[in-house]
């Protein structure tokens, strides 16, 4: 079995983002449903249609960073440009949909303000704008009022040709009735789960998802990718088979996915967490398991959710002991601790090499960490960190580009 099957990418995306705010996931799917029907009527090629449907599902992903969800749900579009900018940068830098990223940037721009030739994604942006407007209108108004609303705003807020096309499709396919009944969900999910996603695209979508977790807290931006890089370096230096290295890679990448459900104020808490806060923080492991257990190789899942277990049974969430933990699971646990020690967090600066070595050696001698893996870290410390830093550099550079361009576009 492959570590991650392409058909499972959409369920993982949906399940993860649902942990942040189910309203946005529901809204994104409803918009995608409307967009898919219009694209089909327009004769859009199948693969492009599927790509644009995923774009529609993710069109508000920037709101997970900018906390504009309430304004968006209330149709307060005067105040939602932050998430449009951030979503554009996010999809451009970290998804297979980068060629359509401008559509996300402009999806709140009215038709009458949208200069012809402004962007290659103009039609897609206006299509998103229309579908977004339809769904938001329906949240506060009766369905029978929609045609009047659309025709009143045709040529102003919305593309008049798209408005007429939408109204024709509504008569044929009962789009609004399917939205109200929930029928749209099974239709959309069947379409998206049938995607022929390549391994490269699957990898990019997973990376995008992990970034959406880490980028909620700037101090954790590099952790997952540093931990992943360290895990792969350790696996390679131990001479593990390529297939096992691949499982370790995906387990490490997905290990903190459950932090999507942890409030930012706890992720960025500047001091020692209280007992209740720590209990909440620890739930990220079980949340990760709930998200991925049905969609990834079982061994990948175990690697991901056992990264806080210790050989002496003092870890969590299950208090497993040495005999319960495979070499891959032990390896990722060491990589997670090493990444935490060398990284800057909200409550600490990065530790010196001397202190890192002292802490790792102590945990190994006290029977908490695997001696073989820890010994490898201590004997090849500089080479391992240098290789991991090189792997993470593009991630940090991309994040810095996002920050710089966000400031430039936001003005």
Automatic annotation (TrEMBL):
SUPFAM superfamilies assigned to the protein according to its UniProt record, in alphabetical order: HD-domain/PDEase-like (SSF109604)
InterPro entries recorded: HD/PDEase_dom (IPR003607), HD_domain (IPR006674), HD_GYP_dom (IPR037522)
Superkingdom classification of source: Bacteria
Gene3D superfamilies registered for this protein in UniProt: Hypothetical protein af1432
Ranges where the HD-GYP domain occurs: 198-393
Protein name: HD domain-containing protein
Origin species: Harryflintia acetispora
Upper taxonomic lineage: Bacteria, Bacillati, Bacillota, Clostridia, Eubacteriales
């Amino acid at each position: 079995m492959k570590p991650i099957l392409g058909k499972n990418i959409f369920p993982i995306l949906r399940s993860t983002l649902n942990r942040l705010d189910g309203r946005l996931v529901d809204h994104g799917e409803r918009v995608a449903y409307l967009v898919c029907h219009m694209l089909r009527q327009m004769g859009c090629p199948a693969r492009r249609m599927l790509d644009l449907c995923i774009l529609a599902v993710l069109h508000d992903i920037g709101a997970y960073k900018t906390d504009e969800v309430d304004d968006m749900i209330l149709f307060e579009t005067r105040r939602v440009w932050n998430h449009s900018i951030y979503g554009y940068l996010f999809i451009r830098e970290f998804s297979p949909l980068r060629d359509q990223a401008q559509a996300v940037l402009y999806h709140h721009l009215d038709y009458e303000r949208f200069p012809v030739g402004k962007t290659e994604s103009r039609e897609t942006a206006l299509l998103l704008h229309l579908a977004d407007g339809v769904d938001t209108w329906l949240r506060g108004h009766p369905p029978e009022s929609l045609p009047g609303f659309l025709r009143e705003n045709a040529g102003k807020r919305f593309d008049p040709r798209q408005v007429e096309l939408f109204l024709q499709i509504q008569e044929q396919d009962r789009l609004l009735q399917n939205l109200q009944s929930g029928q749209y969900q099974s239709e959309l999910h069947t379409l998206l789960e049938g995607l022929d996603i390549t391994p490269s695209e699957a990898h990019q979508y997973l990376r995008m998802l992990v970034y959406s977790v880490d980028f909620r807290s700037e101090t954790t931006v590099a952790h997952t990718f540093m931990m992943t890089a360290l895990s792969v370096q350790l696996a390679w230096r131990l001479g593990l088979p390529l297939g096992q290295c691949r499982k370790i890679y995906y387990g490490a990448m997905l290990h903190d996915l459950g932090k999507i459900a942890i409030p930012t104020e706890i992720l960025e808490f500047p001091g020692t967490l209280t007992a209740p806060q720590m209990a909440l923080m620890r739930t990220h492991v079980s949340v990760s398991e709930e998200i991925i257990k049905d969609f990834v190789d079982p061994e990948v899942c175990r690697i991901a959710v056992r990264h806080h277990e210790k050989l002496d049974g003092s870890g969590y969430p299950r208090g497993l002991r040495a005999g319960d933990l495979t070499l891959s699971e032990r390896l990722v646990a060491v990589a997670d601790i090493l990444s935490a020690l060398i990284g800057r967090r909200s409550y600490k600066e990065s530790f010196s090499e001397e202190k890192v070595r002292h802490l790792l050696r102590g945990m190994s001698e006290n029977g908490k960490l695997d001696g073989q893996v820890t010994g490898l870290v201590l004997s090849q410390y500089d080479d391992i960190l240098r290789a991991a830093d090189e792997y993470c550099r593009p991630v940090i550079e991309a994040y810095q580009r996002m920050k710089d361009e966000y400031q430039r576009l936001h003005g």
